[in-house]
Amino acid sequence: MARINHTPDPNPTRAKARARRNINLVVWWGIALLLLFLLSMGGPWILILPLIVIGALVVTNTIQVVRGDGAEQHAIAPGRLAQATADNDPVAVPVTRAPNRREKGRRRGTLHFAGGRLSFTFGPNPKSRSKTTDEDLEGQTIFDVWPYDIVLGPRPTTMRPQLTLTIDGVVHVIEFTMPEDLAAGMLGSVVAGAWFDQLIELGATSSGST
User: Fold this and answer.
1) How far apart are CA 100 and CA 175, in angstroms?
2) What is the pTM for the complete model shown?
3) What are the tens digits of pLDDT across the range 100-157?
């Protein structure tokens, strides 16, 4: 039998994020199985609806982890942003960006840190229900700034796991997890928190507001 490799993850941020992901999956699988058990014991049929919704999300999240597509895979290690400049080793992480905390105008793209500067570039245009594309923004960079030109919002928390940047008076809400991610709060706070702390170290300021 092959020996399982128990070598610790050299990236403590990613290790912490993965631990939270695993805890979250165990909890939600437990809820799904509990609902299934209650139904099998003659529980009210109204439980079918939450079982279907929760079951679909749990399966989707599990597949995401198996494929290695979760936000935890892109968690940056301590000092990673400073290293990016010193070693000429840029960081590129898939995220979503919205112009406010209510997530209106959410768009996928890539958050880059290279040459000491932070930037966000739009990804492929999403399709609308009418099957027409939104305005052509693919490949456009919406901001490209030095950390000391950034004003950060409150430090990311489980209830508010996004990175909020104010640049030249414009607010950019950056999220590392998708809305359908059941671990969005627990996981997002760790991943976004690492960016927050390292941007502060590199000269960004925090509004400290809530």
Assistant:
1) 11
2) 0.81
3) 655 566 789 999 999 999 999 998 865 544 444 456 777 889 999 999 999 999 999 9
- Cα–Cα distance between 29 and 32 in angstroms, integer? 5
Judge contact between 64 and 70, C-beta under 8 A. Answer: yes
**What does R_g of the chain's alpha carbons equal in angstroms?**
19
What the block records as the tokens of 131 is: 């099957």
One CATH from 2.30.29.30, 3.60.10.10, 3.40.1370.10, 2.40.50.140 for 76-206? 2.30.29.30
Contact by Cβ (8 Å): 202, 187: no
Place of tokens 């112009």: 99
Strands 151-152 and 163-167: antiparallel
Contacts of 10 (CB under 8 A, 6+ apart): 77
Please tell me which residue, 48 or 204, carries the higher pLDDT value. Answer: 204
d(CA 191, CA 17): 7
Give the torsion through C-alpha atoms of 154, 156, 157, 161, to 10 deg. 130
If you write DSSP's letter for every residue of 20-71 in order, what string do you get?
HHHHHHHHHHHHHHHHHHHHHTT--GGGHHHHHHHHHHHHHHHHHHHHT-SG
Please state, in angstroms and rounded to a whole number, the distance separating the CA atoms of residues 193 and 196.
Answer: 5
Q: DSSP letter at 82?
A: H
Per-residue model confidence (pLDDT) at position 100: 66
3-state secondary structure of 89: coil
pLDDT number for residue 131: 45
